[in-house]
Design brief:
By secondary structure, the protein is mostly beta strands. The chain is 7% helix and 43% strand. The longest helix has 17 residues.
Length: 656
């Protein structure tokens, strides 16, 4: 900054560090300010749990109280490791300054400053500084700076934060990268298939882990920098006996939960979103396939605009068990669906799910109402032609063939799925041939970057990069500014001697391999990790309206229950009851056939559908029962276990 600038080094800086017990004491003071917003008319001796979104507000209220008291300064600041109990590799700094300034921090990289993590807050006198990018099992070295309104550094000080070891299963998830020096990989989050969300840098050092129990589907990024995740213990059972999550939370990377959604639809692996809606694939009521598409309105929590495959393809659609949606992308005003097994990609308007365009040469398209929406393929486009904005208008499909050294088929690539959508560009995985990869197959598929001209309904290839292995649960990050592509294979289909389950490969745009990482666990998704430090430096706005959506509850029945048996209900069959968000949570085995709510009328939650699954043969599973819509009454609870009726000691009282 120069010798005479206001650049002051703080000597002998100090800090106070809060423990988990300290944070619990902060929470206690503000519990009474928050009440359960959903299900609060239900009274019962059953243990009640405060919804996650309200717990986040309670914690934030405590942090605001600390800033109100002005106990800490830049020299003597408060450090709160893992402030919301969601990630040990985060911290929050709290302090006050006498005049408005920004705070800039840098977590220095262990293997060079190209992997350092930096963040900057907005101008304020009250400072909440969210720290990310901390290494595990390390005393992290951090530089803090106060920036004045002229953009100069007023003060600077060092800070150290120690993070303990993560669990062994997190430490041993991947091998060392083959060549990190040539890699452009940013901080990247991997999740899904029981792969707890974890962020790696290009050296495959762990820079963020998540301590929240997340369902096997992983996370879905929202446009506001938050993400949506399913809470694993809130499960329901579909008509075919499969378990699915029914509670989803909007969360940020510090672990604050803003809203929760009760969703009584199997949402599966395929979800994307924009600012107001989540677009997800769910099971068809007619066929049982993952082929219907619907939207979750994030403002109301309602599921709306649900369409079946027949609605999309038209009345003459040829239905088949292979025609399931295997991928979904969102870009601008469009939703793009991939049907990998029938080599088809369909682009829909967000507003009404009408078809904009189709890629695919097969009976599913040709014999449907949308055959006139097919894009015409024009082949490879040169660098010079790309610069011509009218290039796609000047060619007919017969003008050139797709280069045979890139793909086997003259008529064009064998499309499988869109890996990334970039406005008028797409990154698509393209197989050379049908079927599973066999041992020894090397050049099995390529990553193609395509250009689309919607006005003239044409598509052309910009570039194709060779890749290896069979592509499943793939995602590609197209680093256009870096001139490279990162391709992931979340599930490696060809067995390996070293027990590799997944891998990522990085290539330059000419196909030169830059880096490779092998994983011992499969994953469903990878997402660039770029938390919004400015947004996260502001407290959560208090609101009791944080639970949205409904589910089907117990159904009224005229059954006459047998006399309860005079013996104890075994905990290995039924236990762990608790109430939260208008939902009764229980843990059961498949021996449990029904739960009855007996008042002036009797309501039944039927569990006989569990006979269709073998997932409860050897262990219990959590099950969520929506009780918020039960009529006003007092209810005794009875359980049917293999035909024997047990009366529970707990009851429910529902008031207006």
């Amino acid at each position: 900054m120069g010798l005479f600038k206001k650049n002051v080094e703080i000597k002998n800086p100090t800090k106070v560090t809060y423990s988990e017990e300290d944070l619990k004491k902060v929470d206690v003071a503000f519990y009474r300010e928050f009440s359960v917003s959903k299900g609060e008319q239900i009274h019962s001796p059953i243990k009640k749990e405060i919804p996650f979104a309200l717990l986040s507000q309670i914690r934030d209220r405590g942090f605001e109280d600390i800033l109100d008291k002005q106990l800490y300064t830049f020299k003597h600041l408060l450090v709160i490791p893992n402030p919301y109990g969601a990630s040990k590799q985060t911290a929050l700094l709290l302090f006050n300054t006498s005049k408005p300034c920004k705070v800039r921090y840098t977590v220095h990289g262990k293997k060079g400053e190209d992997v350092a993590f930096s963040g900057e807050t907005e101008f304020s006198k009250r400072h909440r500084v969210p720290i990310f990018g901390l290494y595990v099992a390390t005393t992290n070295k951090i530089t803090l700076e106060l920036i004045n309104e002229a953009g100069e550094v007023d003060k600077r000080r060092p800070l150290t934060i120690y993070v303990s070891d993560p669990p062994l299963e997190v430490l041993n998830q991947c091998k060392k990268p083959s060549n990190p020096d040539t890699s452009n990989m940013p901080l990247t989050m991997f999740s899904g298939f029981g792969f707890s969300p974890v962020v790696y840098d290009k050296n495959m050092d762990i820079r963020y882990t998540m301590d929240i129990k997340i369902s096997r589907n992983g996370i879905v990024m929202l446009d506001n920098g938050h993400f949506l995740f399913g809470q694993g213990e809130f499960t329901r059972v579909s008509e075919d006996g499969r378990f699915y999550q029914c509670m989803y939370h909007e969360c940020d990377f510090l672990g604050r939960i803003y809203k929760s959604y009760i969703i009584d639809y199997p949402m599966g692996d395929n979800m994307v979103c924009d600012k107001e809606r989540v677009y997800f694939v769910t099971k068809s009521e007619k066929t049982g396939l993952n082929s219907d598409i619907a939207t979750l309105n994030l403002l109301t929590g309602k599921v709306e605009n649900k369409k079946s495959m027949e609605d999309i393809f038209g009345k003459d659609f040829v239905n088949d068990k292979e025609a399931t949606v295997t991928g979904v992308e969102e870009v601008e005003d469009s939703i793009i669906l991939t049907y990998k097994k029938i080599d088809t990609i369909i682009c829909l308007n967000k507003s009404d799910f009408s078809v904009k365009w189709v890629i695919g040469e097969n009976p599913y398209v040709d014999n449907s109402d949308i055959s006139n929406k097919k894009l015409k393929y024009i082949g490879l486009i040169s660098d010079e032609e790309i610069a011509d904005s009218n290039i796609l208008k000047n060619y007919a499909p017969s003008d050139r063939d797709f280069p045979k050294d890139v793909f086997d088929k003259d008529i064009g690539p064998y499309y499988t799925e869109i890996l990334e959508s970039l406005g008028d560009k797409m990154v698509i995985s393209c197989f050379n041939s049908n079927g599973m990869a066999k041992e020894g197959d090397k050049r099995k598929y390529r990553i193609g970057i395509f250009l689309i001209d919607l006005e003239n309904m044409k598509i052309g290839l910009v570039n194709a990069i060779a890749d290896f292995g069979f592509n499943r649960y793939a995602k590609t990050m197209y680093l256009e500014d870096k001139g490279s592509v990162i391709a992931s294979k979340g599930v490696v289909m060809v067995p390996t001697n070293d027990d590799i389950k997944a891998r990522i490969n990085e290539y330059s745009m000419d196909g030169t391999p830059l880096n490779e990482v092998k994983f011992f666990k499969s994953f469903a998704k990878l997402t660039p990790f770029n938390p919004d430090v400015k947004e996260l430096s502001v407290g959560v706005s208090p609101s009791k309206d944080v639970i949205f959506g409904t589910a089907k509850g117990p159904v009224e029945t005229d059954e006459k229950l047998a006399e309860p048996v005079d013996k104890k209900l075994l905990k290995k069959l039924f236990n762990n009851m608790r109430l939260t968000s208008g939902i009764l949570l229980i843990s059961i085995r498949k021996n449990v056939k029904a739960l009855y709510f007996v008042g002036k009328k009797t309501f039944k939650q039927d569990f006989t559908i569990l006979d269709k699954t073998n997932m409860l043969d050897t262990k219990k599973r959590n099950f969520a029962i929506y009780v918020d819509d039960l009529p006003k009454d007092e209810y005794d609870l009875y359980v049917d276990v293999d035909g024997e009726i047990y009366k529970l000691k707990d009851e429910l009282r529902v008031e207006d």
